[in-house]
Design brief:
Keywords: FAD, Flavoprotein, Oxidoreductase. 36% of the residues lie in helices and 25% in strands. The chain has 12 helices and 14 strands.
């Protein structure tokens, strides 16, 4: 490691002031601290957000769930309102990493980091969620802009994420046994105006919506309809874990599996 200063703001106003002055926000630290240990990141000042109560809390607001940015994965997984209103989101949170990661990692940190194989971005994008910051509200379709890249400006902090509650939803993933990240993850959310499908882990560009699956499932919500959608492997990732063709097949298989699960409940 190296020399840096650590601030611990207790109000959102203080956190915003520190971030604007160049301090690196520290949420759950699951990516940032590992990057610092490897000297891939070298911030001179950290702003630990764990004491900012304004960034916590999970509540149902009409037909939406509002989840504070500093809510831990464990909080989302076990919250009674999330489990009742949006069980697929609770299940996703419960399947992230291991117990230690779930106890420390935060939804805001995960979404702001936008790892191309993270689970939460698929739920945010498939839900058509709204990312609320200290400055504005950003639609999910505008937020994710590529690998580790988002619409956030320098010093801008996520305060909460607002999820419209779907009629039904599901998240299916094939987990990499070493990292616990999804080799591919598919989140399907059905709303009155149609179906949204988001895929994570399959592309170096990060999470993306699959319009072919969305259109097919909006017309006919069946596994057979999903199976007939051609999954183009051209822009998918090929690495030591799996080829692009394998990932394309996984998207189809996981989508069909997810639809069957939704129809069974």
């Amino acid at each position: 490691m190296y020399t840096f200063t650590l601030e611990r703001p207790t109000t959102l106003a203080d956190a915003v002031r520190l971030a604007a002055a160049g301090a690196k926000p520290l949420a759950g630290g699951q990516t940032l601290l590992a990057s610092m240990k490897l000297r891939l990141s070298a911030p001179e000042q950290l702003a630990d957000l764990s004491a900012v109560q304004e960034l916590t809390g999970i509540r149902k607001e009409g037909n939406a769930l509002s989840i504070g940015a500093m809510s831990r994965h464990m909080d989302v997984a076990t919250n009674a309102e999330v489990r009742a209103a949006y069980p697929a989101l609770a299940a996703l949170a419960d399947g992230i990493g291991d117990r230690q990661v779930r106890a420390l990692g935060t939804i805001g940190g995960s979404v702001a980091n936008n790892d191309p194989a993270a689970c939460y971005p698929s739920a945010v994008l498939a839900s058509g969620a709204t990312i609320v910051t200290d400055r504005r509200e950003i639609a999910a379709d505008d937020f994710f802009q590529g690998m580790f890249t988002t619409a956030l400006d320098g010093g801008e902090l996520i305060t909460k994420i607002r999820f419209p509650i779907p009629k039904r939803a599901v998240y299916e993933k094939l987990r990499q046994k070493a990292s616990h990240f999804p080799l591919v993850g598919v989140f399907i959310a059905q709303y009155d105006n149609g179906v949204r499908v988001a895929v994570t882990g399959a592309s170096n560009g990060g999470v993306f919506r699959h319009t072919g699956l969305e259109q097919a499932l909006t017309r006919s919500f069946t596994a057979d309809a999903a199976s007939k959608v051609k999954i183009d492997a051209t822009d998918l990732n090929s690495d030591l874990h799996a080829t692009a063709a394998y990932r394309a097949n996984l998207i189809s298989v996981l989508a069909q599996r997810g639809v069957n699960r939704m129809l069974d409940h």
